[in-house]
User: Which sequence fits this backbone?
């Protein structure tokens, strides 16, 4: 009989991806209500230290899998290894944090077991003994309560930041090694070294004031009005991803999960909807102002000051006021 | 190189979304639609590969009759043929179901490369391409920024977290999910729009695809869709633009003390 929660621990360059601890925390909270046992799994090569670190969390057991084919991450390698671990340990729920790596393999893993990943959830609650998960749809404009259907194991991932990894409870778990079978036929991807592009010419991480523009600006030429506001404030100009995708502003002005992370005194979001990938890059700002014509825009969820209105009217008025 | 590119039609980005009567999805009425953002970049990547390598680009879309406009748009931009997957049984499928239908169609067609966008702007599952790869028994890569086709193989650049990238090689055929912004989108020309009228769009339903209904059974269910509750106390500033500007500047100076 399948039972218990299995948490996937991700790591790179010998270090745990801190986001994985959020899944540990989520598992502890779920288990707190359901009484399930929790185990964690670490795959790789030379992973003893990582396993020991995780074993310091309040878990029942930590499984390690050492295998040459898991030296560097591949979607095929992790999928096959994790499936064999699941078959050996029979969890009812496999919990992951919705990182880039998890996005890359977890849908395949679930599908290989004739399941679907309930992905990118932001919270859970227990209803009649069963977990119901909440996930965002329409880029955070709406929320949906969803449940996995069919036999266990179920596969669920939580959006980064949904739970506090630093609040995961400490404990002492036993560590045991499992073995899996992998070979060249199974692992088809050949990864090269990870690298960073040439260093960004603009470092926004230390900027005290940032004025940021999103797709609400509609056309490249309109960016001028936001530039004028930034100048009047003495602020740096930044943008959401679509603005940089369109090459209306250079890549090194992009804020978010695939751009820069900033924590200014003031972040002014102009015509930016507030998708999670943008929010993770700026939610550390001390004061957030949002200007958006849509009162339901998710950006207002984290804004200190909100202005519902047409940016083409508000922004020039603000520039004039700032110049006074 | 024969490339199938999957295009999803989604409500336009600035649509006003209303919850349906059952409370489990949005109302379809009064919506206007567009090509899902990352899928449009997938289409452009396919067209550019064809221009370099020769071959064929097939635009595939799953959905009701209205999604033909997405296929026609792709044909006008330069795709050679279309495949439209339509059946009442395809309504409201989860990511597994969608991938099962797409992979059945792709398998019947045959291809060297199957492209999808990395996630849709409505459901946001971010899974279709990856599940299709599993069901087709093919290798895949996600969040792809660049594609270099080789002899029976591919080398692709993946976006990773924290500003990292990574090149990954794999044998072809393969499935790739494309990230937005990897190229510059083209517009359809008048000539393209005229030419598109002569291009074939093949329609396939559940019977034609020979799909086992069990593959389409839900593996996850939407119980309820709603406007999320705001937890933060946002101070909304109202008035004329000049009043708003004066009030905000005052608050930024004296309340938030950012200047
Ligand atoms: C793997 C991955 C990584 C990503 N990385 C990033 C990242 O690093 N950074 C990032 O920003 N995004 C990133 N994204 C994209 C992200 O999901 C969103 O698509 C993007 O942030 C949306 O940008 P936006 O808010 O400018 O545009 P939209 O979502 O289109 O929002 C435009 C807003 O403008 C408002 N508006 C329109 N007209 C007006 C007007 N006249 N006046 C006032 N308001 C108006 C609208 O109401 C809307 O809220 C990533 C996505 C993925 C999948």
Assistant:
């Amino acid at each position: 009989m399948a039972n218990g929660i299995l948490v996937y621990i991700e790591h790179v360059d010998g270090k745990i991806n801190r986001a994985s601890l959020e899944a540990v925390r989520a598992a502890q909270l779920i288990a707190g209500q359901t009484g399930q046992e929790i185990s964690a799994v670490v795959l790789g090569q030379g992973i003893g230290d990582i396993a020991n670190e995780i074993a310091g969390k309040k878990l029942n057991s930590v499984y390690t899998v050492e295998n040459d084919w898991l030296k560097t991450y591949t979607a095929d390698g992790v999928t096959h290894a994790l499936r064999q671990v699941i078959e050996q340990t029979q969890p009812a729920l496999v919990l992951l944090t919705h990182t880039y790596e998890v996005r890359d393999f977890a849908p395949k893993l679930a599908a290989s077991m004739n399941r679907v990943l309930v992905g990118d959830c932001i919270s859970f609650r227990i209803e009649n003994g069963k977990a119901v998960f909440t996930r965002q749809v329409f880029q955070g404009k709406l929320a949906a309560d969803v449940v996995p259907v069919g036999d266990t194991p179920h596969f669920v991932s939580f959006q980064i930041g949904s739970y506090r990894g630093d609040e995961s409870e400490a404990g002492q778990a036993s560590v045991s090694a499992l073995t899996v079978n992998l070979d060249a036929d199974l692992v088809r991807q050949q990864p090269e070294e990870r690298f960073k592009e040439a260093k960004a010419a603009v470092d926004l991480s230390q900027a005290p004031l940032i004025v940021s523009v999103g797709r609400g600006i509609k056309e490249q030429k309109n960016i001028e009005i936001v530039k004028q506001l930034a100048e009047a404030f003495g602020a740096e100009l930044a943008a959401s991803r679509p603005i940089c995708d369109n090459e209306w502003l250079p890549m090194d002005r992009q804020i978010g999960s695939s751009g820069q992370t900033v924590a200014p005194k003031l972040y002014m979001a102009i015509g930016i909807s507030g998708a999670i990938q943008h929010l993770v890059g700026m939610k550390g700002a001390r004061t957030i102002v949002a200007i958006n014509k849509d009162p339901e825009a998710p950006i207002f969820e984290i804004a200190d000051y909100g202005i519902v209105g047409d940016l083409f009217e508000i922004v020039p008025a603000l520039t004039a006021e700032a110049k006074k | 190189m024969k490339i199938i590119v999957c295009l999803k039609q989604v409500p336009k980005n600035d649509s006003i979304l209303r919850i349906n009567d059952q409370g489990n999805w949005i109302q379809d009425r009064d919506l206007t639609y567009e090509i899902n953002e990352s899928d449009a970049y997938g289409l452009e990547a396919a067209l550019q590969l064809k221009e370099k390598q020769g071959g064929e680009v097939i635009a595939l879309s799953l959905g009701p009759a209205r999604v033909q406009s997405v296929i026609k748009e792709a044909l006008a931009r330069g795709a050679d043929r279309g495949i439209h997957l339509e059946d009442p049984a395809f309504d409201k499928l989860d990511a597994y179901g969608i991938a099962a239908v797409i992979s059945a169609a792709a398998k019947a067609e045959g291809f060297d490369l199957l492209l999808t966008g990395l996630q849709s702007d409505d459901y946001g599952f971010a899974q279709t391409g990856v599940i299709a790869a599993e069901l087709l028994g093919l290798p895949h890569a996600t969040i792809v920024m660049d594609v270099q086709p080789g002899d029976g193989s591919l080398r692709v650049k993946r976006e990773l977290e924290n500003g990292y990238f990574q090149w990954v090689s794999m044998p072809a055929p393969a499935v790739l999910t494309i990230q937005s912004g990897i190229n510059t989108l083209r517009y359809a020309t008048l000539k393209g729009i005229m030419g598109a009228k002569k291009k074939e769009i093949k329609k396939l339903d559940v019977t034609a695809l020979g799909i086992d209904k069990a593959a389409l059974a839900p593996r996850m269910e939407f119980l309820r869709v709603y406007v999320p509750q705001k937890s933060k106390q946002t101070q909304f500033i109202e008035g004329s633009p000049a009043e708003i500007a004066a009030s905000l500047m005052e608050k930024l100076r004296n309340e938030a003390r950012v200047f």
Summary: Chain A is about 25% helix and 30% strand.
